[in-house]
Design goal:
heterodimer, A: alpha/beta, 7-stranded mixed beta sheet, 36 helices, 28% helix, B: 500 residues, mainly alpha
C-alpha cells in the first residue's frame, strides 16, 4: 500500500499510528490539538470565557463538602493531584434526599471512591430521625441496575444524546401556543419542578398538565384542603397521641411519610419504667397490615363496611352535633357497637391527646368524617397539624386518556411513571398513547410505556432518566422543609432529569439542573452563597418548614357531601367478593420492580418474596374449597399454592392464593406492582398484575368480584413457614397492667435454668473482659419494633449480602443476616381469624458462650476480646456445623457463588461445555478472568459497584452472619486512635458520641435497637439491659448472648370485647401449657377461651 | 507334622503304672456342628477358595462389575459437579445444613464396624467361626470406610481446603480446633481405616503366598509374590505372624468401640434436642455392629450360594451372625425406648416436642390419638422402628435364621433401617429445633440420591475386584479350625485328608 504523501515530503517516513498512516482528517486535527479534549478550547476567546466560568464554578464547589459530587469528566484512575479532603479508602458522606410523591426522604449517602454505596437517613434533618425506609435504602441498588434505560432512542432506534436534545428543541419550536400538547407527570414536592412547569406553561399557555400516581396517597390532603378551605395537608404528631385510631390507615407501612410516623409512634410506645405511659392503638382494616399487627385492638371488616364503621365512630364522637344522614350511614355498622362504643369512650377520655387517622384508600366523605372527629376530639394542633402546601392544579390521567382518544393531543410528554403498565384498565392506555403523533418519554427503565413496534404512526422519543443520586434537584419533606437533591456521581448513562427536559421545552437559557436548582434556592433561601453551601452540606434549609396553618374547619361542608354517599351495597359473600388493591410494601406501584434487594425482602406481613399473591382469609379459603396451605406446610418448605382467577366485571386476573390470617372474610387483597410484562432481569416473572382489573372507578376498593379455581398451582417462596411460637416464647409479651404489677415477668417466661456449677472449662472471655477496652452488646425493644424491615435492607447494603433468587428462597437459602420473625397466636374456635402478631428481629446473638465456636474444626469462628463472635471467612471450609449448633439459626451459608453467577443459572456447572457466556467455555473464560464468574459482562460491571469496600464479598462454601458491623466499630476505633494522638484516650464512649451505630440500628425508624458498650454502665444499651423487661432468648441454654430483648407490652382496653374474652396475650396461654407454669402472677383465673 | 510319641503321656517315667487315659467322645447332642461341613478336606479348601480368584470371571461377575463401575463413575461425576458448582446442588437448606452426606457417612462408617469386630473382638474371644467370614467382612469394612470417607471430604463447601482439618504445620501457623468433634472424627476415622487395612493385609499374607504358589502365569507370580512379602510358612514366620495378629487384634478392639462413639459425639456434643444425648456412644456402637452384620449377611448369603461355598460358610455361620444381629438390634431398640423415656422424664418440652411432634406422631394412630398434627418425618421414624426394632426380633426363630432367602431380605431391611436411623437423627432434629420461625423441611436433590447410589458403585467395584484377586476366605485360618487340623479329633492329624 502506498502511503499518501504531504506535498514536499521526501525521504523515509516514520508514522506514529495507523491513523496517521491513513492520513485521516481526524488524526490531523488530533495532532494539531495535541491534547485531545479541552485544552485547545483555550485558544478560542469565547470558550475561554466558558472555561473561566467552569473553573469558578468548580472553585465554588471546591469549598463545599460537595466536591466529591463532581469529579473531573475525564476518568483518571490514580489521582494526579489528590482532591482536597479526600483520603484514599475513607468514605465521604453527602446529604441529599429521595423524592417520594408529595414528600421526600432526607438522606445521607456514603460515597466510596466516588461510588455511592450506602444510603442512610439524615439525622440532622428536622423531619427525620436518621432513618430511611427499605425502598430508600435499596435505591442505591437501582442506581447500578444493569437493566436501567441507557440509551436515547427515536422509535426504538438508538440516537445520540445531542440528536435527542435537538429533536426536543425542534419539537418545542413546533408546539406554538401549546394547543394539543399534554404533559403527564408524577407527583412531586420540588419547587424547581413547579418553577419549570410555570416556565413551560408560560411558553405554551394552552398545554394541559396531568399528574398520575397509580397509588395516590393524596386523599388526606385533598380532604383537608376541602375541609379547611385552603391547601393544607395533615401532619401527625403520633408521639403526642395517647389514643390512636387508624381507619384502614397503614401509617406504619404504606401511607405517606411512614418512617416519620413510625419514629413518632414508637416514641409513644417506649416504656423505660413501669410508671411510663404508653399509647394505645386501635385499627380498623380489611387487610392484615403492619399497623394492624401492632394494634392493641383491631376490627376486621370488609372494605364495604369501613365507611359505615367510620360513620358510626363519627356519630358517637360528635354526638348531637352529628348530621341525620350520618345515623343512616352508620346503621350497618351497628353490629360492631361492642367494639366501637368502648373505643369511642377511650378516644373521648383522652380528648385532645387522641388521634384519628384515615388511610389513603378511604373515600373523601370518610376523610371529612375523620377530620370532623379530630375536630370534635380537640386533636387539631395537638396530635394533628395542618401544614400549608402548594395547591395541586394538574388534571388526572382520565382526562388525558379522554383527550387522547378524542384525538385532541398531538404531543404527549411523559416524565416518569409507567402508565402503560399501571394506568386504570378502563382507560385503554396503550391505544390512547398510540393516538398521539409525538410522544416524549423520560423513563428510568425501558418498560411498557417505552416505544414498542406495535405503535404505528407515532414518533416516540425515549430518553433515559437519571437516578436521583445522579441528579440535581430539590424537594420538600412532609412538613415542608426544603431539602436538596445533589448528585454523588455523574449520570452513568448520560440520563436526563425532568427539570432538564422541562427547561429544554421551555426554551430556558439555563437547562442544567444545577443551575435550575441553584436559581430556585436563590428565590427561597436568599442569594447568599454561604446559605447555599450550608443547605447542601446540611441537607436542608433551616426554618423552611411550613408553619402549622391556622385554618378554620368548615363544618357546614360535611352534610352536603354526606348526602351524596350512596348506601353501602349488600354484605359480601362467596359469590360477591370485595377487592382491596393495595400498595405493595416493597414494589410500591411497580417502580421498584427490578430491585433485587426489595424483591427478596420478605413482605413484613406475609413473608413472601419475589411474588405477590391473592390474599384471602382462612374462612374464605375454606368455604371456597381452596386447600389450606397448612397441609403442605408441614411437609415441605416449598408451597405449591393454587392459582385462582379473580373476575371483576369483564376483566380477570390470575394469581396464586395465599391464606392470610386476620384478613376480612370474603375479601381479596391484591398487591400492585407485580406482573410486569416488560422489565429487567430481576422483575421478570414476578407475580401477577393486579392492575389488569383495576379501573378508575375502583382504584382502591371494588366489590362484586368472583373467584374461580383454575386447577393450576404456583410456587410461592416465603422466608418463614412456621407461624406458631409453640409456647416457647421467643417473643415474650404481656399486658401493660401485668407489667406494672410484675415488671420482670419476661425473665420468668422460660425453662428452669440449670444451676451454674464450677465450669470444667473456664470461658477465656471472662479473663479477656477485664483487659479489653469495650464490651459490645445490643438490646432490641420489641415494644418499639414495628416490623417495617428497613433494617434488613440496611444490613444487606452495608454487608454486601447477595440476593439468591426466588428458587433459593423457596429452599430457605436466603442470606439475610437479620430477619424479622413473625408469629401469630389466636384463640377461640377459629384461631386464625383474628390473630395477635408478635415480631422479633433475629440476628446473631453474639453469645459469650457461643455454641458455634467450639464445634468449628478449623477455628473459623471465634471470639474476640470485646465479646464479638467473629467469623474468619478465609478460614471457613464450610462444614456448616456451626449453623447446626446455633440455637438461634442466624448463620447463613453460601450454597452457591451468588455474587458471581446469574441467579437463574446457579445450578449449571462451570465445567459444562454448553456454558458459554461470552462465547467461551466457562472454564476457559474463568481461567482468563477469574473475577467475573459467569455473569454477563454488563451485569457484573454494574453489580460490583454497589459493594461496600469495607466488607469482603464471600464466595460459595462460606458461612456468614451478623458481625455487629465490625467494620464500623474498627473504623470508629481507628478514628479515635488518630484523635487521641499521644494521649491514651482511645476508648470509645457514648458520651462523646464516638460509639458507631450498626447499620440496622442506624436505619431503624423506631429506634428499637440500642448498640454500645455494655461495660459502660452509662451507655444506652446498659440502661436498656437493666430494665425489668430485659430478657434473653433461650436463656436456659446458658449461651449468654450479648443481644437481649425488651419484652413486648400490649396495652389493651379492659372494656373491649376481645379483652373481655381473654385477658392475657394469646401466646401466653400456650406458654403456660408448654412450660407447665405461670410467669405472671395470677390474681384471678386466667382466660376462659380455649386455644 | 512330626510323628507323635506312641506312648501315652507319663508312661515313660520309670515305675509308672497307670490305666491308660481314656477320652470319651461327647454325646451327640452336645457335639457342635463342624465349621466346615461335609468333612471337606484341606486340599479341597485350598482349591475351592483360591479357585474363586483364579480362572476366568463368571458372567454374573462381569455384569455386576459393569453396573458397579458405571455407578462409581456416576459417583465421581457427582463429586465433580458438586465441587465445581457448590454445595447447593444438594438438597440442603437452612436450617438443615447436614443431610444425605452426613447420613451416608455415618451409615457407611457403621457398616464398617462388623469387619473389625469379627476379626478383632471375636478373635480375642476365640470364636472360631469367625474364620470363614472375617476376610470378606474386613474387606467390606475397608471399602465401607472408603465410601464413608468420601462424604466428609466433599460435604464441605470449599473442598480444596479439606486439608485444613489435619494438623499439618503450615505457614499460616493455625492449627485445627481440637475442641470440635469433627476434628476427633478425622483422627478416629483415619486411625480406624489405617489399622483396619493393616490388620486385613496382615491376615492376607499367608494366603497371598498360597496364591503365589498356585499361580500359573508369571505376572500373577510376581504380583502375588510382591504382596506375599516372601512368606514361606516357616515356623518362625507363623510364630511372628500369630504374635503380630494378636497385637493388631488388641489394637483394633478399642477402635471398634471408639470410632462410632466419636462419630456419635458429632451429635451429642451439640445442644440440639435429639442430638444432645449421652446415650449416643453405646447406642451408636450397637447400631453400627447391627448394621455391619446386616451388610455381611447381605453380601455373604448370596455369595456362598453363587461361589458354592456352602460348606465353608455354613448355615451355622449365618445363624450365628443372625444372633449377633438380634442382640445388637435389641440394644438399639432399648436405646430408642430410653431416648423416648428421657425426653419425657427430663421434662424438657423441646425434647418432648421433637420426639412426639416431629418423629413419632403418625397421621393414622398416634397423631389422632394425641390430637396433634402428623409429624413431618413420621414415615422415616416408623420405617426405622420397624426395621431396627421389629425385624431383628424375627431372628428368635430358628426357621427364620436358617432360611437363606428370608435372612437375605431381613438383612437388607436391617440396612435400610439403620440408614433411616441416621436420617431421623440428623434431619429431623435439625428441621425443628429451638426457634419455630426457622423451622424447615429437607428433601434430597437428585444429586444427593445419585451420589448415594454412586457410593454403592464404589463399594461394589472394590468388593468385586477383591473377589477376583484375593482369597475371600482366610484359607490358612479356615484350615486351622477344620477337624483335620485338630490332632485329637478323630479325623485329625495325618490320618486322613489331603496332601497339605
Amino acid at each position: 500500500m502506498k502511503t499518501p504523501l504531504t506535498p514536499g515530503q521526501i525521504g523515509p517516513k516514520y508514522w506514529r499510528s495507523l491513523d496517521e498512516l491513513a492520513g485521516t482528517a481526524e488524526f490531523q486535527q488530533w495532532v494539531a490539538r495535541e491534547f485531545p479534549s479541552g485544552a485547545s478550547e483555550l485558544l478560542d476567546p469565547v470558550s475561554r470565557r466558558k472555561f473561566v466560568k467552569l473553573m469558578s464554578a468548580s472553585f465554588l464547589l471546591a469549598g463545599l463538602g460537595a466536591t466529591g459530587c463532581r469529579r473531573p469528566v475525564e476518568k483518571i484512575h490514580p489521582f494526579a493531584r489528590m482532591p482536597e479532603d479526600y483520603v484514599h479508602g475513607q468514605a465521604q458522606y453527602f446529604a441529599t434526599a429521595m423524592p417520594a410523591r408529595r414528600g421526600a426522604i432526607p438522606l445521607v449517602v456514603k460515597s466510596s471512591d466516588g461510588r455511592p454505596t450506602k444510603i442512610e437517613g439524615n439525622s440532622d434533618h428536622p423531619d427525620s430521625n436518621g432513618s430511611a425506609d427499605a425502598a430508600a435504602q435499596a435505591a442505591v441498588l437501582s442506581l447500578y441496575d444493569p437493566d436501567r434505560a441507557t440509551r436515547y432512542a427515536r422509535n426504538g432506534e438508538i440516537c445520540t444524546r445531542a440528536a435527542a436534545l435537538d429533536g426536543l428543541t425542534a419539537l418545542a419550536a413546533t408546539l406554538g401556543s401549546g394547543e394539543g400538547a399534554a404533559f403527564l407527570l408524577e407527583q412531586s414536592s420540588s419547587p424547581s419542578r413547579a418553577r419549570m412547569q410555570q416556565a413551560v406553561g408560560a411558553r405554551f399557555p394552552k398545554a394541559r398538565w396531568h399528574v398520575y400516581e397509580p397509588v395516590d396517597l393524596d386523599m388526606p390532603r385533598t380532604a383537608a384542603t376541602m375541609a379547611y378551605g385552603k391547601p393544607v395537608a395533615p401532619y401527625y404528631n403520633l408521639d403526642k397521641a395517647q389514643t390512636i385510631l387508624a381507619l384502614d390507615c397503614d401509617f406504619i407501612g404504606s401511607e405517606q411519610n411512614a418512617t416519620v410516623n413510625i419514629a413518632r409512634f414508637a416514641q409513644g410506645r417506649g416504656l423505660a419504667s413501669k410508671e411510663d405511659a404508653m399509647s394505645r392503638l386501635y385499627a380498623v382494616e380489611s387487610l392484615y397490615t403492619l399497623t394492624g399487627m401492632n394494634a392493641d385492638h383491631r376490627l376486621r371488616v370488609a372494605p364495604g363496611m369501613i365507611v359505615p364503621v367510620v360513620a358510626r365512630l363519627a356519630l358517637n364522637i360528635m354526638g348531637d352535633k352529628a348530621d341525620g344522614k350520618l345515623a343512616a350511614l352508620s346503621r350497618p355498622a351497628e353490629a360492631h357497637d361492642e367494639w366501637i362504643l368502648p373505643c369511642v369512650k377511650d378516644l373521648k377520655a383522652t380528648g385532645g391527646k387522641s388521634l384519628v387517622m384515615g388511610g389513603y384508600r378511604l373515600p373523601l366523605p370518610a376523610h371529612l368524617l375523620v377530620l370532623a372527629m379530630n375536630e370534635a376530639l380537640g386533636a387539631k394542633d395537638q396530635t394533628i397539624e395542618f401544614h400549608a402546601v402548594p395547591e395541586a392544579v394538574e388534571e388526572d390521567i382520565s382526562a388525558l386518556a379522554k383527550d387522547l382518544h378524542a384525538g385532541k393531543v398531538q404531543t404527549l410528554v411523559i416524565l416518569g411513571g409507567n402508565p402503560a403498565y399501571n394506568a386504570p384498565a378502563d382507560l385503554g392506555w396503550a391505544s390512547a398513547q398510540a393516538k398521539a403523533k409525538t410522544v416524549v418519554r423520560l423513563g428510568y427503565h425501558e418498560d411498557e410505556t417505552s416505544w414498542n413496534p406495535s405503535l404505528q404512526g407515532v414518533t416516540q422519543w425515549d430518553l433515559p432518566a437519571a437516578h436521583f443520586l445522579e441528579s440535581w434537584g430539590d424537594a420538600r419533606t412532609a412538613n415542608g422543609t426544603l431539602s436538596p437533591i445533589q448528585p454523588l456521581i455523574e449520570p452513568m448513562f448520560d440520563g436526563l432529569t425532568e427539570l432538564e427536559v422541562l427547561a429544554i421545552l421551555a426554551g430556558a437559557e439555563k437547562t442544567k439542573p444545577y443551575d435550575i436548582t441553584r436559581e430556585t434556592f436563590r428565590a427561597i433561601g436568599g442569594p447568599s452563597e454561604n446559605d447555599w453551601r450550608k443547605y447542601l452540606h446540611d441537607g436542608y434549609l433551616a426554618g423552611s418548614a411550613s408553619e402549622p396553618a391556622s385554618a378554620q374547619y368548615k363544618a357546614e361542608l360535611l352534610p352536603p357531601i354526606l348526602a351524596l354517599v350512596k348506601e353501602p351495597a349488600s354484605a359480601p359473600g362467596p359469590e360477591k367478593l370485595e377487592v382491596v388493591f393495595h400498595r405493595d410494601s416493597k414494589m410500591d406501584d411497580g417502580r421498584h420492580n427490578n430491585n433485587g434487594w426489595l424483591q427478596e425482602l420478605p413482605d413484613p406481613v406475609t413473608k413472601l418474596t419475589w411474588d405477590n399473591a391473592i390474599l384471602v382469609s382462612p374462612k374464605t379459603a375454606r368455604e371456597m374449597g381452596l386447600a389450606p396451605r397448612e397441609q403442605k406446610q408441614d411437609q415441605t418448605q416449598r408451597f405449591y399454592d393454587q392459582v385462582v382467577e379473580i373476575q371483576l366485571g369483564p376483566r380477570t386476573v390470575r394469581g396464586a392464593i395465599w391464606v392470610q390470617p386476620g384478613m376480612a372474610d370474603y375479601t381479596v387483597g391484591l398487591a400492585l406492582g407485580y406482573g410486569r410484562e416488560r422489565t429487567g432481569r430481576i422483575g421478570r416473572n414476578a407475580g401477577y398484575n393486579a392492575g389488569k382489573i383495576r379501573t378508575s372507578e375502583g382504584m382502591n376498593y371494588a366489590s362484586g368480584a368472583t373467584l374461580k379455581k383454575t386447577g393450576e398451582t404456583f410456587q410461592l417462596s416465603t422466608t418463614q413457614s412456621h407461624w406458631n411460637m409453640e409456647g416457647r416464647a421467643p417473643v415474650r409479651e404481656g399486658n401493660l397492667e401485668d407489667f406494672r404489677k410484675q415488671p420482670d415477668f419476661a425473665g420468668k417466661m422460660t425453662l428452669e435454668r440449670p444451676p451454674v456449677v464450677a465450669p470444667l472449662y473456664p470461658n477465656p472471655l471472662d479473663r479477656m473482659k477485664t483487659k479489653a477496652l469495650h464490651q459490645w452488646g445490643m438490646a432490641i425493644d420489641l415494644n418499639k419494633c414495628v416490623g417495617c424491615s428497613a433494617c434488613m435492607v440496611a444490613c444487606q447494603s452495608e454487608n454486601n449480602i447477595p440476593i439468591v433468587g426466588k428458587e433459593m428462597v423457596g429452599k430457605s437459602r436466603e442470606m439475610h443476616w437479620i430477619r424479622i420473625d413473625r408469629y401469630y397466636a389466636g384463640i377461640g374456635p377459629e384461631p386464625e381469624a383474628e390473630p395477635q402478631a408478635a415480631l422479633q428481629p433475629m440476628l446473631c446473638q453474639h453469645c459469650e458462650a457461643a455454641p458455634c465456636e467450639n464445634v468449628c474444626p478449623v477455628n473459623a469462628t471465634s471470639h474476640d476480646d470485646e465479646g464479638l463472635n467473629v467469623m474468619t471467612y478465609n478460614r471457613c471450609v464450610g462444614t456448616r456445623y456451626c449453623s447446626n449448633n446455633c440455637p438461634y439459626k442466624v448463620r447463613r451459608f453460601n450454597f452457591f457463588d451468588y455474587n458471581r453467577r446469574p441467579l437463574d443459572n446457579l445450578y449449571q456447572s462451570p465445567l459444562d461445555p454448553r456454558d458459554r457466556s461470552g462465547g467461551k467455555w466457562e472454564l476457559l473464560r474463568w481461567w482468563e478472568n477469574p473475577d467475573r464468574g459467569n455473569r454477563p459482562e454488563d451485569e457484573w460491571q454494574m453489580a460490583r459497584l454497589v459493594h461496600n469496600p469495607d466488607v469482603s464479598v464471600r464466595m460459595r462454601g462460606v458461612m456468614e452472619k451478623c458481625t455487629f458491623c465490625l467494620q464500623r466499630i474498627e473504623q470508629a476505633k481507628i478514628a479515635q486512635k488518630v484523635k487521641a494522638r499521644a494521649s491514651n484516650h482511645i476508648r470509645l464512649s457514648e458520651k462523646e458520641g464516638t460509639i458507631p451505630k450498626t447499620a440496622c440500628q442506624q436505619a431503624c425508624p423506631a429506634q428499637a435497637i440500642a448498640f454500645g458498650d455494655v461495660s459502660d454502665p452509662e451507655s444506652t444499651v446498659s440502661k436498656w439491659k437493666a430494665q425489668p423487661r430485659n430478657y434473653t432468648a433461650l436463656d436456659f441454654l446458658n449461651t449468654k448472648p450479648r443481644l437481649t430483648y425488651l419484652a413486648k407490652i400490649r396495652n389493651p382496653n379492659p372494656e373491649m370485647p376481645d379483652y373481655k374474652r381473654h385477658q392475657e396475650p394469646y401466646s401466653y396461654d400456650q406458654f403456660k401449657e408448654t412450660i407447665g407454669r405461670a410467669a405472671i402472677e395470677e390474681a384471678e383465673p386466667a382466660g376462659k377461651g380455649a386455644r | 507334622m512330626a510323628e507323635a510319641d506312641p506312648r501315652p503321656i507319663g508312661t515313660s517315667l520309670p515305675g509308672f503304672q497307670a490305666a491308660p487315659l481314656v477320652v470319651h467322645a461327647p454325646p451327640v447332642e452336645l457335639e457342635r456342628e463342624p465349621l466346615v461341613a461335609h468333612g471337606r478336606g484341606i486340599g479341597w479348601l485350598s482349591d475351592t477358595i483360591a479357585g474363586v480368584a483364579e480362572g476366568k470371571p463368571a458372567a454374573w461377575w462381569k455384569i455386576c462389575f459393569g453396573i458397579s463401575f458405571t455407578m462409581m463413575l456416576v459417583c465421581f461425576g457427582c463429586v465433580l459437579y458438586l465441587m465445581s458448582t457448590g454445595v447447593g446442588v444438594w438438597g440442603l437448606n437452612h436450617p438443615i445444613m447436614w443431610g444425605y452426606a452426613i447420613v451416608n457417612f455415618v451409615w457407611w462408617i457403621g457398616i464398617g464396624h462388623a469387619g473389625t469386630l469379627i476379626s478383632a473382638i471375636l478373635f480375642l474371644l476365640r470364636q472360631k467361626w469367625r474364620t470363614s467370614i472375617n476376610r470378606a467382612a474386613e474387606a467390606m469394612t475397608i471399602f465401607a470406610v472408603m465410601c464413608a470417607g468420601v462424604f466428609p471430604l466433599i460435604h464441605i463447601g470449599r473442598i480444596w481446603l479439606g486439608w485444613w482439618l489435619f494438623p499439618i504445620p503450615n505457614s499460616n501457623g493455625i492449627w485445627p480446633q481440637f475442641r470440635s468433634p469433627l476434628m476427633w472424627d478425622v483422627f478416629a476415622v483415619s486411625t480406624y481405616f489405617t489399622v483396619s487395612v493393616l490388620f486385613w493385609y496382615m491376615g492376607l499374607i499367608p494366603d497371598l503366598a498360597v496364591m503365589r504358589d498356585r499361580a500359573r502365569t508369571r505376572i500373577r507370580k510376581i504380583g502375588y509374590g510382591l504382596f506375599a512379602l516372601g512368606w514361606t510358612g516357616s515356623n518362625r514366620h507363623w510364630s511372628n505372624y500369630e504374635k503380630a495378629y494378636l497385637i493388631l487384634a488388641g489394637l483394633s478392639t478399642p477402635l471398634v468401640l471408639s470410632v462410632h462413639s466419636i462419630v456419635s459425639l458429632d451429635f451429642s456434643v451439640s445442644q440440639l434436642p435429639g442430638w444432645h444425648t449421652t446415650i449416643f456412644p453405646p447406642y451408636f456402637v450397637a447400631g453400627a455392629v447391627y448394621s455391619g452384620f446386616g451388610m455381611v449377611l447381605t453380601l455373604l448369603v448370596p455369595l456362598r450360594r453363587m461361589l458354592k461355598l456352602e460348606d465353608i460358610i455354613t448355615v451355622r455361620h449365618v445363624e450365628l451372625m443372625c444372633k449377633v444381629t438380634l442382640l445388637t438390634g435389641s440394644i438399639v431398640g432399648y436405646a430408642y425406648a430410653m431416648e423416648f423415656f428421657i425426653a419425657w422424664y427430663s421434662g424438657n418440652p423441646y425434647e418432648k416436642y421433637l420426639f412426639i411432634h416431629n418423629r413419632a406422631a403418625d397421621p393414622y394412630i398416634i397423631g389422632p390419638l394425641m390430637g396433634i398434627k402428623a409429624a413431618p418425618y413420621w414415615w422415616a421414624y416408623w420405617t426405622m422402628i420397624i426395621c431396627n426394632v421389629v425385624v431383628p426380633q424375627l431372628f428368635w426363630f430358628k426357621k427364620v435364621r436358617t432360611c437363606m432367602i428370608v435372612v437375605f431380605v431381613l438383612s437388607i431391611l436391617v440396612n435400610i433401617g439403620m440408614w433411616f436411623e441416621r436420617f431421623v437423627i440428623v434431619v429431623t432434629s435439625l428441621s425443628r429445633e429451638f426457634i419455630p420461625s426457622n423451622w424447615g423441611y429437607y428433601s434430597p436433590s437428585p444429586v444427593d440420591i445419585l451420589q448415594f447410589l454412586g457410593t454403592f458403585g464404589l463399594f461394589f467395584t472394590f468388593f468385586l475386584l477383591f473377589l477376583r484377586y484375593v482369597p475371600l476366605i482366610a484359607i490358612a485360618e479356615v484350615k486351622g479350625v477344620t477337624p483335620q487340623a485338630d490332632p485329637h479329633h478323630p479325623l485329625g492329624g495325618a490320618k486322613t485328608g489331603g496332601h497339605h
